[in-house]
Amino acid sequence: MADTKPKPVETLESVTIRFAGDSGDGIQLSGTQFTTATAMSGNDLSTLPDFPAEIRAPAGTLPGVSSFQIHFSSKDILTPGDEPQVLIAMNPAALKAHVKDVVSGGILILNADTFTPQNLEKAGYKSNPLEDGSLADYRVIPVPLSTLTANTLEDTALKRTHIDRCKNFFALGIMYWLYDRPLEPTLDWIQKKFQKMPEISEANSKALHAGYAFGETTELFQSHYHVGKAPIKPGKYRKITGNEATAFGLIAASQLSGRTLFYGSYPITPASDILHELAKHKNFGVKTFQAEDEIAAVGAAIGASFAGHIGVTGTSGPGVALKSEAIGLAVSTELPLIVLNIQRGGPSTGLPTKTEQADLLQAYGGRNGESPVAILAPATPSDCFDMTIQAVRIALKYMTPVVLLSDGYLANGAEPWKIPDVSSLPPLPRLNASDPDGFFPFKRDPETLARLWALPGTPGLEHRIGGLEKADITGNVSYEPENHERMVHLRAEKIQRIAREIPPTEILGPHQGKLLVVGWGSSYGAIASAAQNMQKQGLEVAAVHVRYLNPFPPDLGRILKNYEQILVPEMNLGQFLLLLRAHYLVPAVGLNKVKGQPFKVSEIENKILQMLGKKETSDGGNKSRAARANA
Amino acid sequence: MAETKAAPPALTRKDFISDQIVRWCPGCGDFAILAQTQKFLPTLNIPREKFVFISGIGCASRFPYYVDTYGFHSIHGRAPAIATGVKCANPDLSVWVVTGDGDSLSIGTNHLIHALRRNIGINILLFNNEVYGLTKGQTSPTSRMGTKTKSTPYGSIQEPMIPVSIALAAEATFVARTFDTNLDHLSEMLLRAARHKGTAFIEILQNCKVFNDGAFADITERSHREETTLTLSHGKPLIFGKEKNKGIRVRGYVPEIVEFEPGRAPPEILVHDERHPDSSLAYLLSKLYTPKFPAPIGVFRDVERPTYEELMSQQIEAVKKTRPADLQALIAGSETWQVPAQRDAEEGA
Ligand SMILES: Cc1ncc(C[n+]2csc(CCOP(=O)(O)OP(=O)(O)O)c2C)c(N)n1
Ligand code: SF4
Ligand SMILES: [Mg+2]
């Protein structure tokens, strides 16, 4: 409570904080703990973890820097924030890598103990930024974290190296004081995590408390801050990442359909966590299979699907490349298959830990022959839950592969999630064929064009399927020209009919006007925020976010016609743009960013203002960055 | 292995013949294998709907179309992966993979090896014709040095792979070899494979009439078969020859042929032990091949190990006992907070 604290408390609406340090410094851990404490304080929040591809790049160097950004607010927010107001840098390299993103006048909390000549040199500093005036634009708060932590824990029996590892909790304690967060969630977590190592548990808790007390007593801070609760719908909440939500969506779909989930996968960043998550939940009968490669992973999923399970395979772009022949097999055999692509920067191995949206055309056309699949894309971490269930629903109902395009940003980013009541989720029925009378493996449902799903083991329905072209209805091998053309059309038409499953497109803003921003996937937050800000400025700007990329929503074409200009921001060189233009013959314009980083709200705003012939925003730093993104 | 419930009307060979025209070249060894398989399947007393034949791509891989059971003609090399998914999903099925030497030892080697080391309960029939048949005659990973094919007009310059050696190196629990014209032996091997728990691997030497005719004549030709093959039989000494006057012994680590007077085999002749837990001796036998040695025919190895699908279900059942499948609890997780319907007015500062 404010009155028990001698230092004054200022109220802020929103804050963006970035933690940065060596990947060994526990940055992701600090970030996640701060997120939990913030979620429990009732703020709305959004996070952006960012880690190096190397597990432990050389300590103190720029490539070894890991970071975690969190934006929290007493208002509804949709993005992890454009520019941090506070940077906690655990060493000079972390400062060097991130200081340029901090708003001018922002706070830099630096681990002063690490600003030694060696570390400065490793980070590529010619002179000490603490002394050379180069940080004059910021409020610099040097804190000797290592020394303070060592002093706090000097009477413990722990080794020096162990003591030093507690410094991230000391730093976290300072942040909890500075932003008025509760310590309990983290204290509980420490206790659980280090149950078997009571000394470590106690040391970490002590460091956290000491950091908090330090904030209160040090001369360095004159006041601290409070961010009020956000007007969130009442209910029970948790924080959730996209990968967690995807895994839960798969388990939910399995429960809703009464079918066993089979997940075949080969480890790859940033998809592996889905395999890890699913492997834990064998109590739901989930079968996880870590295959010898991506081809075996999808092959086994197809086999499981042939035998009646929900066959799912998860990977990232390079893995999808390997799976493409098998996905074609599932197209040809018309078996349900869910392919998760947690996209990352490409081409080739690319940027394994960075986000990108450049696999849309791969999903759309990355197979030989006319080989259409349904493509869905979640917009936020929690949306991964709903869209995954929807992907399974479509795969089963239409007997088709469905590609779900998530990405690194959704996968690892977290947001509060109002936990749905599972009894309110619609069931997911799909019948197996059982009647031998008049049975043919490629006889179709007249509505959906889905063929019958006849599981091995069913008496009287013995049949053969395969990748050779099949005769319509009988499914026997056929090289007949008319038949091939008919089958190609049937498979294409079946995918088009999935449009019936798509709910009306939600328009954020005026239903007609000067400019429409059309997005897909993880850029939702930045796009929606930008559109809202423009509307507040009285501009006729609306946004729609497309979750169904093949087929497109049936109302999309009509919506596009209602605006004078169309802007399509994407983290690629214009793949969705290409499809939109080809489908609707509209003169849409792209805003393309391929930096392995999600869009900033300001980058989209600048482009909108430019297109409307208005001035760009006054923030100089933003302007130049946005201009680069526009180039 | 699948089990029968009630006694359905006994199945016959005809029940396993599909209505599709068999499209192999006249004289192809695949015909004999197909016919023998169709004759053998009813003897298992497994209902027809419980069989699944899964193949890759190649002449051999057309096999599933011709057997009237469930079947899946998949993509080149990937049949073991697809079969793994089928077996994991329904362990009650009798799953058979039919593959060629290119299919399983070139493009699909990875899957073959991993199926074997996992010991997934499937039966793998590798039709080895030492050539790519379907693509009209290129060298294959089992083609012998110097083999002239369309892609090696001056002779192959690659050392061939020995399928049985590969299988044993992958710690396969059942490994056998037979050939297309040795019908009773083929049936016996199929039966042994069907009875085996875990992955059963059979190499079937198969003549490609069009692109590699007579590739195995040096081994399988009736006139000299007794000299050029070594029939493996558990617990029996490794003796061969028309006169039963030759045997295999090991000196150092090297096998060699000893000749003796018929009926007076010296004690150092190796005695076949297909159930030995260590695969070393079986591996040594797998290296015996024409022209220096007779090619062993029969079961190299037959040992028991838990199957992949068994272990998978055991883990699932064990976890199910300790934790209920509560979806609501799962998605809520351990750290939740309640946002009340009516909020307290925000305190100032
Ligand atoms: C991905 C892919 N690559 C190549 C082919 C062409 N192809 C079909 S069968 C085959 C080789 C078959 O040889 P083998 O497995 O020995 O079978 P056989 O025809 O001799 O029975 C090849 C290369 C293909 N179908 N798919
Ligand atoms: S090409 Fe050879 S293997 Fe293929 S069907 Fe003809 S004879 Fe048989
Ligand atoms: Mg071959």
Description:
The complex is a heterodimer of chains A (631) and B (349). Chain A contains 21 helices and 23 strands. In chain A, helix 14 links the parallel strand 14 and strand 15. The C terminus of chain A is likely disordered. Chain A folds into 3 domains: 219 residues, Pyruvate-ferredoxin oxidoreductase, PFOR, domain III (Pyruvate-ferredoxin Oxidoreductase, domain 3); 187 residues, Rossmann fold, CATH 3.40.50; 124 residues, Rossmann fold (3-Layer(aba) Sandwich). Chain A is of the alpha/beta class. Chain A starts with 8 loop residues before the first strand and ends with a helix. In chain A, strands 11-10-12-13-15-14-21 form a 7-stranded mixed beta sheet, sandwiched between helices. Chain A is globular, with a radius of gyration of 27 Å. Chain B is an alpha/beta fold. Chain B has 2 domains: 263 residues, 3-Layer(aba) Sandwich (Rossmann fold), CATH 3.40.50; 35 residues, no CATH class. Chain B is 29% helix and 18% strand. Chain B contains 12 helices and 12 strands. In chain B, the strands form 2 sheets. In chain B, strands 2-1-3-4-6-5-11-7 form an 8-stranded mixed beta sheet, with helices on both faces. A 3-stranded antiparallel beta sheet of chain B has the order 8-9-10. Chain B starts with 28 loop residues before the first helix and ends in a 10-residue tail after the last strand. In chain B, 46% of the residues are buried. The C terminus of chain B is likely disordered. Classes of the chains: A alpha/beta (631), B alpha/beta (349). At the A-B interface, strand 1, helix 1, strand 9, helix 9 and helix 11 of A face strand 2, helix 3, helix 5, helix 11 and helix 12 of B. Strand 17 of chain A pairs parallel with strand 2 of chain B, so a sheet runs across the interface. Thiamine diphosphate binds next to helix 4 of chain B. Magnesium ion (MG) binds next to helix 4 of chain B.
